[in-house]
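Look at one record.

>
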Amino acid sequence: MLDKILIISILLVLPIVAQTQEVAERQLDNNSISIYDNDLLSADFHSGRREELRKRMKSNSVAIFLAAPVRNRSNDVNFEYHQNPNFYYFTGLNEPHAMIMIFKEPTEVNGRFIKDVVFMQEKDPETEIWDGKRYGTSGATMILGLDMALENKVFHEMELDLDQFDEIYVQNIHDDIRDVPFKNGDLFDLKAKLDVKLNKVKSKQKNGQLSLWCAELREIKTDEELNLLKKAITITCEAQREIMRALNPSMTEYQAEAVVEYIFKANGAEYPGFPSILGSGENSCILHYTASRRPMNKNDLLVCDIGAEYHGYTADVTRTLPANGKYSYEQETIYKVVLEAQQAGIDVCKKGKN
């Protein structure tokens, strides 16, 4: 009897132990790749987006996305990396030198039938000292939930014949891609090897189709996306309120910009979603003014066109503010005309109208 109770107890405890071990392993991997945010889009979100894309793809087809290139600022200093939004949308991977292939149906790759494969940088402790921790192929499958992850430099060795597919969708990168010296498998190499394969199947390529599908998918936001958008908007509105409180005629445009972008960072935004536009006086009439060097005067208006980017989602909020805190009669009159026109447009925005 005691033996039976012991066996039942062990059977009941085993799933809990396994689950605890799985959580511990996942946490270990999170720590090994420096995941500090707890509100990133989930692996289920990215997997679900891939499934929605598959619904639009023709039978026996493949979709291919490349990561964004690394951009050099000067000498050995690069700009802060920003991922190709569509690549991130389908993968959750915020690393360069990568490519994903999404198959309509399970396709054999390296002896396994899979629905997607990402080619990416493997973990490299020496490089990670300089550039930060990487997911590595194991992290991409365990944390991001991708079917298969392979080191990027093996792509050219693979016997993956694109001619087996009836249709091939590729999101092309039109920007300059630099070849990283002594780095086999970087984005330059990936694209060069991909182009060799694509040149053999030009008639099967459906240029432009992926961009249309991505736009269609991203028009409708999931609850996870809406939460991130609301966060970006909240941060941006707080920055607008703070510059309203801080603004005075003794400031320069760059000091106003500093106030705005401090609020972004202080509230967790990774970066501005676009270069902040803080234009005063004559600069307020330059639509995409970004120099931010002019000292303000007491009768100036400051156009503050800003947006925080939070986990890949960007707000865009514009306000026109008097440098001295009070609109003149003429400024207030014009302000009200524009505000009334805007409100009239908002009032007729109804479902079914165009």
The chain has ten helices and 13 strands. Residues 223-347 form a domain with the Creatine Amidinohydrolase fold (CATH 3.90.230.10). The first strand starts at residue 61 and ends at 66.
